[in-house]
Amino acid sequence: MQRTWRSGSAFTLQHIQPRNRGDFSLAPFRRSDNLRASWQLLTTLVPTALLWASLPWIWQPLRFESLLIVPALALLVLFSARSFSLMHDCGHGSLFRSRALNRSVGFLLGVVNAIPQHPWSRGHAFHHLHNGNWERYRGPSALLTVEQFQQLTPQQQQRYGWSRHPLMLFPGGFSYLVVRPRLQLLLGLGEWAGAMAAELRRDGWSALLSLDRRTLAFQSSHWYTGGEFIDLAANNVCVLASWWLMSLWLGAGLFWSCYAIVMTCSAAIFICIFFVQHNFPDSYAHRTSDWSYFKGAIEGSSNLILPSILNWFSADIAFHSIHHLCERIPNYRLRACHEANQHLLGNCAYLRLGDLPRCFNLILWDSSKQKLVSMAEA
After folding, report:
1. Which residues, other chains included, contact 265 with Cβ-Cβ below 8 Å and sequence gap of 6+?
2. Dihedral through CA 106, CA 108, CA 110, CA 113, nearest 10?
3. In Å, what is the CA distance from 141 to each residue of 167, 178, 275, 316?
């Protein structure tokens, strides 16, 4: 693992130890640009649509041209990952200047990615608020503490290790995008039906007169606010309609075989990126009592050294420490902000692609040592 940033020049920058967030120059980079955001949206969604439209022409069974479906699907995976990154910016209110534009474009990108954007963004905001506080937030994999792990039977420990294996990114990714949002709505509606039936028994038929108010006030274990429920329901309606229309257009067999590959692989990519940017050797992993938001951003977020083309498809989320210092900086200004402040980023971790496998060994939190450890270390 590399902890010292080296620029492309022949010298190494002299680093300054920052004391707090105020030492950084962030404000000049916070301004959103509607034109740049629109161009990013256009150069993501138009190629995505063209690639899907090309599939019936490419896929001709038993013909050599059908081999072109491999690069076409690879590009669809990358564009899908990029659309998720733009949706992520909308959730932070940073892609466009106005809240309404971020909300509406975020909803559209949520449909493209088959995931309700508003509930996802609220959960993601919780992550930003508590990054590095491992008593409050254990990452997307809900990692166990060493003490919890040692209380498991050997068979349970083995299953836990398998469930956090990198290969599980693929079935986990498919479930995360394609299955989970639909299941959340169905289970939540089941809870709603039970709660409304109980209120009907208690208040009689008059309860029907205020059904809309009671529905918005209802709290499910699958959503937290009425706004989340509306977004979840609307997303499901639009996603299911798009699946039906795409199946009619491309044929159910071609659509679902390609769609499953694209969604599985794109979800695996962004879950992988999220994981290694917070689970890495010497990552800041403290208890609530001595946790620091500032250190969580600087020392609890790694920065990825990626080829330029992958930085484009991931919308520069590789510059992650700056993103955690100020999530209102749009993706198209992250690199410039990082470079302007890189003399303050000497304590940040920088990971190359070859470093990533080691990160997936760190699936336990040692609360006594306040660090992430592997199963072998535990």
Report:
1. 77, 170, 173
2. -130
3. 14, 18, 8, 23
Look up residue 182 and give its amino acid: R
Chain segment 157-206, per-residue pLDDT in tens? 999 999 999 999 999 999 999 999 999 999 999 999 998 888 888 888 87
Domains of the chain: total: 1
SS3 137: coil
Contact between 12 and 305 (Cβ < 8 Å):
no
Residue 203 sits in which domain range? 174-250
155 found inside a domain: no
In a domain, 322, yes or no: no
Cα 45 to Cα 73: distance, rounded to the nearest angstrom: 15
Residue 241 lies in a domain: yes
Q: Please name which of 37, 46, 48, 54 lies closest in space to residue 266, comparing C-alpha atoms.
A: 48
Q: Give the model confidence (pLDDT) of 99-138 as tens digits.
A: 999 999 999 999 999 999 999 999 999 999 999 999 999 8
Length of the chain: 378
d(CA 124, CA 91): 8
Answer for the pair 271, 81: CB distance below 8 angstroms, yes or no.
no
Whether 219 maps to a domain, the answer reads yes
Task: List Cα–Cα distances, 270 to 154, 233, 235, 307, in angstroms.
Answer: 31, 24, 20, 16
pLDDT value of residue 100: 96
Q: Between vectors from CA 71 to CA 70 and to CA 75, what angle results, nearest 5°?
A: 120
Q: Is 78 exposed, middle or buried (0-12, 13-18, 19+ CB in 10 A)?
A: buried
* DSSP class of 177: I
